[in-house]
Queue: 4 jobs
Job 1
Amino acid sequence: MIMPILKYGAPELKTVSEPITVFDRELETIARNMTETLYCAPGIGLAAPQIGLNIRLSTIDLTVGEDPSQLIVICNPEIVLAEGEQRSEEGCLSVPEFTDTVTRPRRMRIRGQNIHGEPVQYEAGDLLARCFSHEIDHLNGILFIDRLSSLKKTLIRNKIKKLAKAGSW
Ligand SMILES: [Zn+2]
């Protein structure tokens, strides 16, 4: 099922999400819905708070469904190691139409659990490292615009306020 994606302004996007402790059918359904929503958007990463669920679950697929073997469904992701730096243009399905340059680690080691609760670990570089960093931020109630300078952040916020006033946010 394709779920509506919450936009900047929704309180769920500012909330620190809860760890997942129960790995059941319901969780599998949520993950499947998130994957379908991600591919439909289309996007390369989606975190549960973006569909209004404050649980530590994220789906990532750099191929946007082109290669199903590349799909990552991760529960309770944690950063074990973060190295280097990369600066690149970034956007977010919850902040549509806006992009800006965000600094992220170049390499990351991520550990977490798969949908069955089994431990998993990923060595991520470049775009995948950026994506993990962005998704883990979501689980901590942080959006990419929170990582911009206060001036840029204010500019984007004001534009969004205008859009919201016009009923187009
Ligand atoms: Zn995002």
Job 2
Amino acid sequence: MYDRVNSTLGASPAMPVELFNKDNHVCVAFRDLVSGEAVQANQFLIFDSDHAALIDPGGDLTYTGLFMEISNYMNVKSLDYVVASHQDPDIVASLNKWLVSTHCKVVVPALWERFIPHFTRPGKLAGRVIVIPDEGLNLELGSIQLKAVPAHFLHAEGNFQFYDPKSRILFSGDLGANLCPTDVIDEPATRLDDVLPFMDAFHKRYMNSNKVCHYWANMAAAMDISMIVPQHGRAFTGKAVAEFIGYISNLKCGVDLVTQDNYRLP
Ligand SMILES: [Fe+2]
Ligand SMILES: [Fe+2]
């Protein structure tokens, strides 16, 4: 079904990158589809046994490019799922287009179910929404069950990451987001220190508190993870996986850091 000759890890950033390709199971990252002033964002395709999910496909900026790219792997009309980690525009603002151009179901956190229709035309979502309850979900996708893993308040109040048990990749959404130089964006970081300067300020401001960071880290430390792949910037692999989980576990952020000084009239 997929015959495209793709770049491999570490190749030019102006191509999709296969994170995994084995036994009729492919995970692809698209990192170069956003142009102009918008923040760089990654979109992901998981393809298994003629079934496919797009994770966090983004907004209008990425729709056309992503549609063209995934058509190299599959008949796009038969896309099974558009999966949204949370409600932000860089996550799922293109939803209406995917609903019109494919037969997909949209998979969204319960907390945002009634906000998502603001991205679509009236009636377009009827019978096409799968809601992820707060405790998470196992989503049937070909031969695997894609796990929607709770990551609430990291940063959105209702937020999920997606764990692929076959590739052992954790698609971590905005957690781990790093705005690194584009020439290294396709090279997974093996040391947290290589990425930290490009992620620390973001996490201190956007993540909610050490309490939720610590709970997430306890969960993640018990998982079998080959790679953590955020929605912005580089992936983490090798030693950087445990280093990243340790960093998040100890992170003081969000409400930990604010004082009365942050709440004064301008
Ligand atoms: Fe976000
Ligand atoms: Fe984001």
Job 3
Amino acid sequence: MSDVRQHADDIHDQFSDHIDVSVDDVEDRLTTLVDEYKVPIDEARRSVTNHYLEEAGLDREDLAGGSSEAAKIEDVDEPEQWIDITAKVIELWEPRSDSVAQVGLLGDPTGTIKFTKWAKSELPTLDEGGVYELRNVVTDEYEGRYSVKLNSTTVIEELDEELEVGDDTSVIEGALVDMQSGSGLIKRCPKEDCTRVLQNGRCNEHGEVEGEFDLRIKAVVDDGLDAHEVIFDKDATENLTGISLEEAKDMAMDALDTTVVADEIRNLVVGTYYRIEGPTFGRYVLADDVEELDGPADAEQLLIKARSM
Ligand SMILES: [Zn+2]
């Protein structure tokens, strides 16, 4: 079914109890807006919905959730579905575009999913840590990853309850293609429960402190479809590189420079293939279980192909 037809179907479902309208009529209106006036489908849907609201003498609230179904995050496996979810805002990220009011990560007991709230939807602001019932959000898919979009038909209700968020374990197989800054031998703030990484000996919260050394890798792993940001903690980094925290400190001491550690680690890990398993935390996957691979899974196939040419 085409996108437009799917939207027409949804709108028709919302109004079929109220007015006499066919799916074809709805589709014609949407098609005119999308094809002739180049209106984005979300906007076209809103406009057409408004038209039928007026015709039926209804308010938007009368329809809220009309065609969408309550869903769990783990069940989202199709784009362009209108659903209701109850979720906690785990994290908010900096929007990269003016058209986006808020972007971040939602979680429920079954998993996590990215959300985008359009600026033009003029919806209330979601707070980090808040639990909300979100009615009439639409699912989207990009390169195999799902997200939900909050649009002008979305109804947001803040709930006064806690919601346990399930960690959804990711498995990534791919090449470690880049190591980000903040990797290698780092210093953390020693204040209780702070553990922030120091920048030039300073903690963002506590100012200048005597830091404690730690080892970590912030890496980008490319599985051929998508780039994933992966964090290796001290243990994972020691296992991956064979360099212990004590050895890293000695290396830095000898060179009077901590960057030698990052350089050494980069040489060891960049370009290597790994199978990484671990929980998703915000936009990062924490590398709990790491296995080095010989190469891409289909490398042999590629070689056979190359030889036959
Ligand atoms: Zn601190």
Job 4
Amino acid sequence: MSDNGKPKLAMYWASSCGGCEISLLNIHEHILDVDAIFDIAFFPCIADFKVKDVVGYPDGYIDVCLFNGAIRTSENEEMARLLRQKSKVLVAFGSCAYEGCIPALSNLTTREATLNTVYLDNPTVDNPERIIPQTVSEMPEGDLTLPVFYHTVKSLDQVVPVDYTIPGCPPEPHQIWTVVEAVANGLLKGAPLPPPGSIVGAEKVAVCEECARERNVKHIERFYRPYEINPDPNICLLEQGLMCMGIATRGGCGALCPLVGMGCRGCYGPVEGVEDQGAKMITAIASVMDVGQAGLHDEQALEKKIDALLDTIVDPAGTFYRFSMAHSMLQRTRANGHGRNN
Ligand code: SF4
Ligand code: SF4
């Protein structure tokens, strides 16, 4: 608690797109409540704070820190360690901090390949001298330094202990406010807080349980891209051959995507009790694939039919692990001699 009686709030942005900050500002008039309840101790996205401000705080000075973004660089890791030290409650806010999200899809390749794609082999890049950022550049005026770009993107809890997690890409504003209000009541009125380690601002059940679409027995003969069919507005999308991760994904968003005809992409992470969202989804799909009579007497014909069906899933790794790669059992691919954690 600060000297003026107000709890201190911080929000920090590591490797992410900025959507989490917008989602916090998107809690409408409750943003005024946040301002009334908390002193903002560090929030570089909206006000001019410096890292040295945080360094100067005593340990535990920040009551609640909402940390969004994955750990992609040495700077991200240093800030995670600093904010952990200075915060009583550290919250992994959003999918990148929780499970790596889109940045962690680069765990499917190497650091070198990622840098080459961004700085060299991209049709929109004009880089005739083929310059790639270096961690140290010697200049006449002195050395210029940049953070180290890690080979493997990590989630926040793979670097420091995390007290709570709010899933979502980004988390839904109504869920954010529920959590912020609960934390404020805990700090100011001694109301009970969820046990440390909890996932808050979400449901325990799957997105399917929030989805109003009619579900029947599924027989999937092939998958379609969203532009290839005009789905029935009332029937389960997966049943119609549109990829929907609702079965494997934690609810809390109100099944927003299926509501408007798009399959759930999985941004709230795995359902309660499931360690690996992609594996859960692969298992679910395997149980509803319909290959007809193909394999009754001919194993080769069965394999061919299964391969043809699987070929209709565009980018399987990017589909099943779009948000959860860093936190999955795989974490990354082994490529060019790199193992799991380097
Ligand atoms: S699979 Fe998707 S469309 Fe089908 S019920 Fe679940 S969330 Fe709804
Ligand atoms: S439906 Fe799925 S992808 Fe869409 S917001 Fe909800 S959890 Fe995220």
